[in-house]
Amino acid sequence: MSSAMATRLSDLFGNSRIIAGLLVNLLSSICIVFINKWIYVHYGFPNMTMTLIHFVVTWLGLYICQKMDIFSPKSLRPSKIILLALSFCGFVVFTNLSLQSNTIGTYQLAKAMTTPVIIVIQTMYYRKTFSTKIKLTLVPITLGVILNSYYDVRFNLLGMIFATLGVFVTSLYQVWVGAKQHELQVNSMQLLYYQAPMSSAFLLVLVPFFEPLSGEGGIFGPWSFQALVMVLLSGVIAFLVNLSIYWIIGNTSPVTYNMFGHFKFCITLLGGYVLFQDPLSLNQGLGILCTLIGILAYTHFKLAEQEEGKSRLAQRP
Q1: Shortest CA distance to 166 belongs to which of 113, 209, 204?
Q2: Helix, strand, coil shares of the chain as percentages rounded to 5?
Q3: What is the Cβ-side half-sphere exposure of residue 262, based on CA atoms within 13 angstroms?
Q4: Which of 9, 110, 151, 271 satisfies CB 3.0 to 4.6 Å to 163 for a cystine?
Q5: What is the pTM of this model?
Q6: Rounded to the nearest 5°, which phi and psi values hold at 269?
Q7: DSSP state of 153
Q8: What is the DSSP secondary structure assignment for residue 216, as one 8-state letter?
Q9: Where are the bilayer-spanning segments (predicted)?
């Protein structure tokens, strides 16, 4: 571990507010995966409808936050964020479909492909350059995901299609969020405050075309009280995930959030095998290890480059 990374970690754990924020994010991020998987496995709740409920709960949560002066909303033209709202719908729906169709291990590893895809998008369309070291870390990440998917005994072609679409749309969304924040001079919460209701409206129009409204499997179907409580709880936890992500990035940095993400990555994988008895072969284990090494190397080099950039700026007369 580099001295820069060690210093950053010691600074983090010396701040009780940041520890609290990290703990909220850790628990909510892990819970959302397991609760959503539980809902799909045990209740079969419709995916797009559940995503719509998540968006509505997120918007209501943000409405309460701005009333409590946690952030100040900024007026935005709908035409400026329409593509962002559509990609938000796509990434959450496809990611949830991937979770519904795949084992938690395959779902979690597929998400790791977001980093290589973001780098490809930024290189091809935004002419951004990355160092050779950063590019080389993409090799073990990609190789590990391929190894895990190939040896997954519950391999599901439809699940892999959903995972691929989820990774692509998530990558686009993350790139666009950064670009829009810069273009519109807003923070993440201000952007999400306008984006969530617009995404909800899109899904409200689309749900009747893809999912039944009544009867078995429909939103107005004969759901048990427990199922409805679980879905509502899932929505509240999804809001806590979003809120804690923005708080951590705002109070630390995106790199710190990613470093913390590796810890969540490992716990979520372990939980999938313990709670849902997902099978794990030796080759899958090697794939997971390979991906984890690539992610850690990527974070290490990214952090080192940022520290180098800061020291160069400080040395300028």
Answers
A1: 113
A2: 80, 0, 20
A3: 19
A4: 110
A5: 0.78
A6: -60, -45
A7: T
A8: T
A9: 18-39, 45-65, 81-99, 157-179, 191-210, 225-249, 256-276, 282-301
Task: Please give the structure tokens belonging to residue 172.
Answer: 């686009």
**Cα–Cα separations (whole angstroms), residue 179 to 89, 131, 175, 216, 241:** 18, 21, 6, 42, 22
Could you tell me if 193 and 246 are in contact, meaning their C-beta atoms sit under 8 angstroms apart? Answer: no
CA distance 18 to 219: 39
Q: Tell me the per-residue pLDDT of 139-183, one tens digit each, with 9 for 90 and over.
A: 988 888 888 777 766 677 888 899 999 999 988 888 888 788 888
- The pLDDT score that the predictor gives to residue 86 is 93
Gyration radius from the chain CA atoms: 20
As given in the structure block, the two tokens for residue 293 are 């090494």
Query: Considering only CA atoms, which of 313, 292, 239 is closest in space to residue 57?
Result: 239
Indicate the DSSP class of residue 113: T
* 191 token code pair: 């952007």
Considering only CA atoms, which of 240, 235, 192, 230 is closest in space to residue 28?
240
**CA atoms 88, 61, 237, 142: torsion sign:** positive
| 15 in Cβ contact with 252 (< 8 Å) | no
Stated as kind and residue range, the H or E segment containing 148 is helix 132-150
**Running DSSP on this structure, what letter comes out for residue 211?**
S
The pLDDT of residue 256 is 60
Taking the mean position of all CA atoms in its chain, how far away is CA 69? 26
User: How far, in Å, are 49, 55, 91, 282, 312 from residue 202 at the CA level?
Assistant: 12, 11, 13, 43, 46
Provide the CA 68 distance to its chain's centre, in angstroms. 26
User: pLDDT category, 257, cuts 50, 70, 90?
Assistant: low
Q: What is the C-alpha end-to-end distance of the chain, expressed in Å?
A: 31
Q: How many residues does the chain have?
A: 317
C-beta of residue 104 within 8 angstroms of C-beta of residue 31: no
Nearest to 28, CA basis, from 5, 54, 48, 49: 54
Q: Which long-range contacts (CB under 8 A, 24 or more apart) does 128-132 make?
A: 131/301, 131/305
